[in-house]
Amino acid sequence: MIKHIRGQEVNNSMVELRRLSNGIRVVLETVPNVRSVALGIYVETGSAYENEQNNGISHMIEHMMFKGTKRRTAREIAMETALLGDDMNAYTTKELTCYYARVLDEHLPIIADILGDMFTNSLFEEENLLKEKGVIIDEIDMYEDSPEDLVQEQLQKLVWKEHPLGYIISGTEENVKRIGHAELLAFWKETYVAERITISIAGHIEAEPVCELLEQCFGEIPSGKRLQIPEAPVYIPSKKAFQKEIEQVHLCLGFPGVSHMDERSYVLSIANNIIGGSSSSRLFQQIREEEGLCYSLYSYGSSYHRTGTFQIYCGMSEENLERVYEGIKVALQALKESGPTTEEMDQSLAQIRSELLLSMENTHNRMNNNARNLLYMGRILTLEEILEHLRQVTASEIMEYLQENCNRSQMSVTLAGNLEGEPKLQRIFETW
User: Fold this and answer.
1) Which of 20, 33, 113, 149 has CA 20 to 30 A from 431's CA?
2) Angle at 225 between CA 219 and CA 229, to 5 degrees
3) H-type helices in 89-161, by residue range?
């Protein structure tokens, strides 16, 4: 029996919450005047819920889900989705694995059947597993060859120390080679259960027939046990350099951030936009546009269930490293001491508002936003709610947050580049 929980008007559309007979949560958003439907299946599994021995197994399962079922070969899955527009894919994060598709409304029954087949009938054949391990190892090598990704991922690994939240999502090459068929199957059966699955769908739909379709496709998944979210790790300021024979130097600065549930997430959202989260930000305008010291520079917040980080990244020539570092230091210090201007506050709010409104024009974004709201906040936030929280952010709150978190005692640094024997490296690590 499908249980109707509640419905609400959200962002000029109707959003309803349901439960399938096995307990899977479903969030449906009916969007008038579109032909597309976006479907996402979110599983509460990822590297944050692994251990040192099986780190990478969630990502491995994501790959193997496309490698054949009792009803379809891997080729047949690929061919069927291609006929629908080939817009089906998946990704793994630290706390979630998501399988998603965006199709015409008339193709929803087909894509739901394919995904339901993958969730209930995947084979995980050992022959395919051996082949896919090679693909995953190549993916790990690509990550290690990307210094931009390296400094950002390694910073989180360092600040969370031994906590699983610091694990690399793809895992280690050693683990990928070692994890066998039986271990993979056991982890899949433990985690791909109804109590850890949320389905989000948005677009040209009618709630009742869609729920009946989802019940047919996903209703046989066993209920299982609800995920127990571990306590937040302790943020430990860390510094490390990675020697790479490359032309540029890649710098990442990290500071304590906020969880999804933290009310200060709205403060950090505005602060980030002012610091380095947009082309009009202080860092971008000063360091890139005015001084021409780099090409790529940005800041962002990473939020999780219990904690988060705030990070600033820049790629530059080795000769500009100290000047860029000093420029970031000066800009943050000025913002901590004097706060943002009224113009910066207004501009940031207007920019974020525009981004949110434009995102509502895409059914995939609606689907994803609804799922993440439900998973992390326990409910669906309206656009007006979000904007009202942002409007209430004050300059003094931004100053307070930066003074508390973006300081020398809390700062973490990762560097990648041709740094061997570099005397300025120690100065970077020791000065702020």
Assistant:
1) 149
2) 125
3) 108-121, 126-144, 147-159
In the annotation, is 62 catalytic?
A: yes
Give 42: exposed, middle or buried? Use CB within 10 Å, 0-12, 13-18, 19+.
buried
Strands (E) in 156-267, as ranges, are 197-203, 239-243, 248-256
Domain at 3-218, CATH homologous superfamily = Metalloenzyme, LuxS/M16 peptidase-like (3.30.830.10)
Structure confidence by residue, pLDDT tens digits, 88-99: 999 999 999 999
Residue 424 has what pLDDT?
74
**Residue ranges matching CATH 3.30.830.10 in the chain:** 3-218, 239-430
Reported as a single tens digit per residue, the pLDDT across 242-279 is: 999 999 999 999 999 999 999 999 999 999 999 999 99
CA–CA distance, 222 with 64 (Å, rounded to integer): 20
Q: Which fold has domain 239-430?
A: Cytochrome Bc1 Complex; Chain A, domain 1 (3.30.830)
**Rounded CA separation 386/390 (Å):** 6
Torsion angle, CA of 276/279/285/291, rounded to 10 degrees?
100
Residue 96 CA to residue 91 CA, distance in Å, equals: 8
